[in-house]
Amino acid sequence: MLTWLLRRWRRKKRHPVPQLSQVPRYETAKAGYPFCLLAVLLFGLQGLVATAGALDVVFPDLPSPISFPNGRAIHLNLSLLWPLLGLMGGVYYFFPGEAGRDLYSEKLARGQFWLTAVVSLAILGTLALGINEGREYFEAWRPLRAGLLVTIALMFYNLLRTYLGPGVPKLRPTLISILLGTGSLVPLYFPNLLSYGHQTRDDLVRFWVVHLWEEMSLELAGTGVIAALLLTMTRVRRETLAAVIYLELALVVMTGIFSTGHHYYWIGLPSYWLTIGLVFSGGQLIPILLLVISTVKTLAVSGFRELPTNGRLALAFLGASAFYHVTGAGCMGFVLAVPGINRWLHGTYLTSAHSHLALAGVFGLLSLSLCLYIMLQGQQVSKREQQGLWLSFLLVNGGLLVMGGGLAAAGALQVYLHRVAGLEFGTVAGLIRPYLLVRALGGIIYAAGSTWLTWLVLRVAWRRVI
Question: What's the whole-model pTM score?
Fold first, then answer.
């Protein structure tokens, strides 16, 4: 017994829990703050827009200043914009610490933020006015989408010049992961600025963003940032995470590219893409589970209660993101990709349930995890504010689960009634309306949580300013 206690004492002494003062601080890391602030603001806006759209589906005659098609376009573009902004903030905040030096140019990062903010707000404003190119997720006016591509390229250039600087550990997996993720965002987005004479070609490059951004690029960048976050907050050893990251990099790139194949068949490519998509969709669960196992082991060693408020909130949102990664993105995506049943499920509300849980649940909550850690760091958060933040966490996740459950139930009934029993589309729409009302209820809960969370973060941000 005495020997066991002595070993425990030595282990704690050798690997103390890092405190904020022990984390290397670089002045240019502050360039991530405004990205996180804008991400949280757009997150709050999306909760309101999505709820209004969900109610419009159930009650089409509700008065609204924005038409349903325009509102849907705003919702879809927001679903890409605010997670991307939050990830940008996390990358800028953690990259200097991992590189061991300040960013190549803080002015470039600041300028990129203002350009990103102007472009993002212009996209939302023009969509509200009905300036819409009609391509799902790419409804925004083409010059504005080109502006968004420029901002991403500026970020990658800044990170690359920092990485190439003297003294930077070139083989550090967190840096490689972030660079691969941010660097691949540009070539995957650029083809969507061009015009194509065939619908299949147009949809092919569209899925390079709709799926490959999420399942490869954002996951690569997110993996590097998550590892940096865990190294900052917990006593996990860098060598432990390094092996996991390198293995995950290879798996994410391979499975991310080929798992998109289950979509290709439905836009005009040969049927063998269904099988390719199924095999690699199943393989996507491996890197997800690796990251989840590493996170759980880290928490088991470090202790959740020992962390500061921002650390506990960040890990809670990160844990929720991992849950949706395994269930909504991984398992549900795999089921939807099975060739034998894909033709029955594709394009139904089951697909919508999968997309909500995968995009909002995985990368949305990952983005919030980073934003909360960064925005709340070093700030005094009252007990009442802490309670409000945890309540927001419960509302956001509870609303997302109710929303996803309502969509999944509506989709299952839609498949049976319309595609199996053969009822008319209008009849089916009436029969599944109660489940869409459940989806709208989940949206209201989600919007309440997102609005309250946004307000609390703004209060903390205001105290930082004054």
Answer: 0.88
